[in-house]
């Protein structure tokens, strides 16, 4: 009837007329407004809270007067007494429409509320988790129609929630009858359904209405560290994060040495699998303790990892990933039960979802980066490099997305560097070299001061200066190039050529002294010619991989560069570009995505739509195999120069001096030869 | 082209013209002829053997000449050398059509060959198992399209077998890469798919072509005994059968005492669950040893059982089945993994299928009987009684099928009978009483002679005469009635009333002496007045249940009676009818279905179509609850007389004398009172 009250919902703007007495929740459902409810409108769960707005609304063409909603009723009163209802709020299932009204659905009452991932990103995550609780009222058994309790529960889920198909494992079936009777034929079931399934799996059942929060854990399982984020599956909020070293390091620092360990030692793969699973259980235990929750509240784990870690986590021998054609056991996502992975630190019924690998060298971590950064949604041609022991490289825009991995080796992480060390207090992480005096100043991890500032010595008294970490070595080499201490071929000049005694003789080559602590029994921190060579190999591999993708795409330039990975967050864009790690773009077009893989894992944890999306994306990505592309070698050789032998880097040169020096005395090493192609590690 | 050779397949009669050179298997597939192949036409599996027929075939309108099929080729030669090909046989995938030909497909080459269940039955079982092996050739990995091994296997199954969707558990995924490489990119996978699933589950994988037979076990899990049939899942043939006592007997002989045990003893249900699972593992071990196979060959188990055993098997506390409204945890079939039931005597990947229960008192065993006997497919109105401690009763025809259970108690099994014992050597199982002399003669289990035949004493020397078993007591009571020793009310006459000293005083009642071994220290085997009362209670419950279903059906008569259950096979129809256990029908319309529940289990094991059928049937069956039907009591009272107080049994009387005696002296017990309604047991 056209004289029925008009109801307008905000922020959706959906509107319709409803008979007097219609509950707001009912009106919302009929209009397709996103208003949450776990109890199905029984005034129990309070998820359907709304805020009525009163007054003149010319925009909506209505005036909302007091009395436009029914009076506060006993259910709302009881809820308010027990838990407190914020001022102006009503329960959408209790308040009924009496007259024209504008109703605001606050974000926390939206099922599919958006969760902003991080300040730096415009993208948002829509909550659509695989695991959700549902409150239902189940019909009591009847001797005349003797259906089972499970069948009546399924019927209730169908009638009350539109859930077509459910299945229960044996452990749920064992508890079902007791729970239904204890809850006087009401219960809350926790259901799980993946993006590629049509059946909801009952993970848990509790009598009556049960609102203890449910959590999931997003796990970024790296070769060196394992990071985990305990996430509230209703809100998407991270309750707490924690990290742990990957105990597989004792079997080999890089992935290929772990594959070798597996090949050389019978049972070695099993040993590594056990080690990582034990660590994951410990890590989840830490999260549980930190958040003050119980393991039973954790209902799902989502993993992202490189292919070798993927296989070792699943207990699959990674031997095939160590040799061409680098065949994955499976290239789809993997859905499991926690017991399949010997995980005992969660709810017994909890599920596991492992993101798909892109190729034998391009892992689920890269897939997670693709999910988080969504290059396929960009108009700009975006290059994403996830810098680690292996670099995963994605290049794409709305037309096409390409992926490859490149074996950069551990130099970027401070390994194979003479004074290199892991990022830890005492490590030099930033450095500047005065181009006139050739004198350095630096910062060490754990201290906010520069080395030439007052109080620096006191501030570092406990840690000292112990070495140089990954971001430090990149800055050091780039600063040396900008200060004219290093020529484009990568040769360090002699004291005579550079005019500074900080360049010292070191056999037939030279080194640059950043810090001399030897007087106090401390280290001599230098950048040696060998360090430069190691960095050149690493950055050439990275750049060559990017160039190969650009070839495939038919372009010489990109619009944007995103540095991903925990390490990526610490790399200075200017220094990376001076080194020629990444193509020449304006510096403000180089951004850090932080731990994009971890973000992708969280997105997959919070959204089955994201799972479907990444599964599709992974299939569509064009995989480029650097190992078999002849042009890779050519790109690699050209990229050896700093910043590059043939690519002009004009944008960079317009803002940064790159002195045109040459220190070749005939005794310097061959800058293009001697390349030992590292065994691959993704 | 109409001049292409004509190919006629027998026995199907399907025919068509095919170009010269068409393989017979290809022709068969195009015509929809049921010709098996596991290797997909690669000359490996030999499942597609056919027999060409040569000569004049006026019926088919063709003449088949020598040379109508291609010559024996090297593949066939190799197969013949290795395994031998029967005379006249060809491999359908190798022999090609050259000219008009008639081709016979022998039964063993048909996928959906029928397996006749038993000589007595016209019905047949079509092989359609949930578990089947498939040979496939898998594409090798390719770095340019880096899909996983699992995805290429799935692709191969789709291309070569039309299988749309497969999933692999973690244990298959762990072995997949090694198996594919070992088999040089060929493998045999064992797939499983239930009737209500759309995904094939990979249970096992072996390199290359692998033809070790796959078995399933059909298990009839009874309260007293567990019977199991090891069945070849390609042929449906039973390799071996075995039985074992249900060890739960120590917790209570009948089901209700087990439910009580569970209610009275914390952990009692778990204890009983453990006991039965241990027994099942032992039983499967026996089958495996007897058949000379290895546990890994057993890929599926199918269970039928009453509701209490169903719940105890699954580890569900049966407490709800002990009290109204007798709610089942689930009334659908249950599909599980063997590990869910702690079964470790099969392939680790083996599956379990448990038939659905019909109601809280009418179990999956009754469902299996319904599957085996298919009352809903009959024009005749058929009454099926599965006689045991509880009787399951089905009544139906094409219009409708009804089911109930009735608490007969253990009297029919020789329990609660003064001289009663289990069916074992020494037990009287058959008995005749001369109506003139009132003298008995009998047979005991383990001896083929009647007691009045020469050599009987010698033949039973080792076993002796120890008591009377279930079928023996039924015959004894019926013979006493026919000989005029027992009146319709169930009173045994005095020596004076009956004229025989075999009727002896026994307190205020009388007993009939069948065998007096006391002189030699043996037993005095008698039928006491108390035994008669126990049999009356049992048979009244059975008849009342059948009558109740007949009421629901609106009929006073049935067309056929089927006695099912292991015990049913031993009951003599005439004696059962004299007792009034079953309604009055011509004796030749009473048949035994043997162990119909076990047959139903085998059918479900061999056919997913059978699973779908019984799931549907169970939903459609009208369930009648004897406990809440007021008419049950009335039927019970009327059924107390032998054969019956009100139903005339005219058909029976026309062939069998039922002397019209009466021994009521005023001191005899009340034949209708004193009925202690037994606690229910299904």
From TrEMBL, chains A, B:
Residues 5-109 form the 2Fe-2S ferredoxin-type domain. Residues 656-682 are annotated as: Disordered. Pfam families: RACo_C_ter (PF14574), RACo_linker (PF17650), Raco_middle (PF17651). InterPro entries: 2Fe-2S_ferredoxin-like_sf (IPR036010), 2Fe-2S_ferredoxin-type (IPR001041), Beta-grasp_dom_sf (IPR012675), Corrinoid_activation_enz (IPR052911), Raco-like_middle (IPR041414), Raco-like_middle_sf (IPR042259), RACo_C (IPR027980), RACo_linker (IPR040506). Transmembrane segments: none annotated. GO terms for molecular function: iron-sulfur cluster binding. This is Na(+)-translocating NADH-quinone reductase subunit F.
């Amino acid at each position: 009837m056209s004289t029925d009250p008009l109801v307008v919902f905000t922020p959706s703007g959906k509107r319709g007329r409803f008979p007097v007495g219609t509950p707001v929740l009912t009106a919302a459902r009929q209009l397709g407004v996103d208003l949450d409810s776990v109890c199905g409108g029984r005034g129990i769960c309070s998820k359907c809270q709304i805020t009525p707005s009163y007054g003149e609304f010319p925009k909506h063409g209505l005036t909302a007067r007091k009395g436009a909603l029914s009076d506060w009723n006993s259910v709302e009163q009881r809820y308010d007494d027990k838990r407190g209802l914020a001022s102006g709020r009503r329960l959408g299932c209790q308040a009924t429409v009496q007259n024209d009204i504008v109703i605001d659905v606050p974000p926390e009452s939206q099922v599919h509320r958006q969760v902003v991932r991080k300040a730096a990103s415009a993208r948002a995550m829509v909550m659509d988790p695989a695991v959700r609780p549902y409150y239902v009222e189940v019909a009591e058994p009847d001797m005349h129609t003797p259906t089972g309790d499970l069948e009546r529960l399924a019927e209730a889920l169908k009638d009350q929630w539109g859930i077509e198909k459910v299945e229960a494992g044996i452990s749920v079936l064992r508890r079902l009858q007791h729970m239904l009777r204890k809850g006087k034929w009401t219960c809350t079931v926790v259901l799980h359904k993946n993006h590629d399934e049509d059946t909801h799996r009952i993970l848990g059942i509790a009598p009556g209405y049960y609102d203890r929060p449910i959590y999931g854990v997003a796990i970024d399982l790296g070769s060196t560290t394992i990071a985990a984020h305990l996430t509230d599956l209703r809100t998407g909020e991270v309750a707490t994060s924690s990290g742990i070293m990957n105990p597989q390091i004792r079997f080999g620092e890089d992935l290929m040495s772990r594959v070798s360990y597996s090949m050389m030692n019978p049972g070695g793969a099993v040993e590594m699998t056990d080690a990582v699973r034990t660590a994951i259980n410990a890590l989840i235990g830490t999260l549980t303790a930190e958040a003050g929750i119980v393991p039973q509240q954790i209902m799902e784990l989502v993993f992202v990892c490189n292919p070798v870690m993927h296989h070792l986590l699943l207990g699959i021998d990674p031997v095939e990933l160590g040799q061409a054609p680098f065949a994955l056991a499976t290239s789809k996502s993997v859905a499991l039960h926690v017991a399949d992975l010997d995980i005992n630190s969660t709810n017994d019924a909890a599920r596991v979802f492992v993101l798909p690998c892109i190729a034998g060298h391009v892992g689920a971590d890269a897939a997670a980066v693709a999910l988080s950064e969504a290059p396929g949604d960009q108009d700009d041609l975006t290059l994403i490099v996830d810098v680690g022991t292996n670099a995963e490289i994605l290049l794409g825009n709305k037309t096409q997305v390409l992926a490859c991995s490149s074996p950069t080796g551990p130099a970027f992480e401070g390994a194979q560097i003479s004074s290199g060390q892991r990022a830890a207090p005492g490590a030099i992480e930033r450095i500047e070299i005065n181009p006139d005096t050739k004198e350095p100043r630096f910062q060490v991890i754990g201290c906010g001061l520069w080395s030439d500032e007052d109080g620096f010595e006191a501030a570092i008294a406990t840690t000292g200066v112990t070495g140089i970490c990954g971001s430090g070595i990149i800055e050091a080499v780039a600063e040396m190039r900008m200060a004219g201490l290093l020529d484009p071929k990568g040769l360090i000049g002699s004291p005579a050529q550079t005019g500074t005694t900080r360049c010292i003789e070191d056999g037939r080559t030279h080194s640059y002294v950043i810090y001399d602590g030897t007087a106090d029994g401390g280290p001599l921190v230098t950048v040696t010619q060998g360090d430069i060579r190691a960095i050149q190999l690493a950055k050439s591999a990275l750049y060559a991989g990017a160039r190969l993708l650009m070839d495939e795409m038919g372009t010489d330039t990109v619009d944007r560069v995103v540095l991903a990975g925990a390490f990526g967050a610490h790399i200075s864009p200017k220094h990376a570009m001076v080194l020629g790690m990444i193509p020449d773009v304006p510096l403000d077009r180089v951004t850090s995505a932080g731990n994009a893989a971890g973000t992708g894992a969280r997105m997959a944890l919070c959204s089955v739509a994201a799972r479907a999306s990444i599964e599709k994306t992974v299939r569509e990505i064009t995989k480029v195999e650097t190992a078999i592309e002849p042009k890779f070698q050519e790109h690699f050789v050209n990229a050896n120069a700093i910043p590059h032998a043939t690519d002009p880097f004009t944008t960079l040169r317009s803002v940064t001096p790159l002195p045109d020096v040459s220190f070749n005395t005939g005794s310097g090493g061959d800058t293009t030869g001697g390349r030992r192609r590292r065994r691959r590690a993704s």
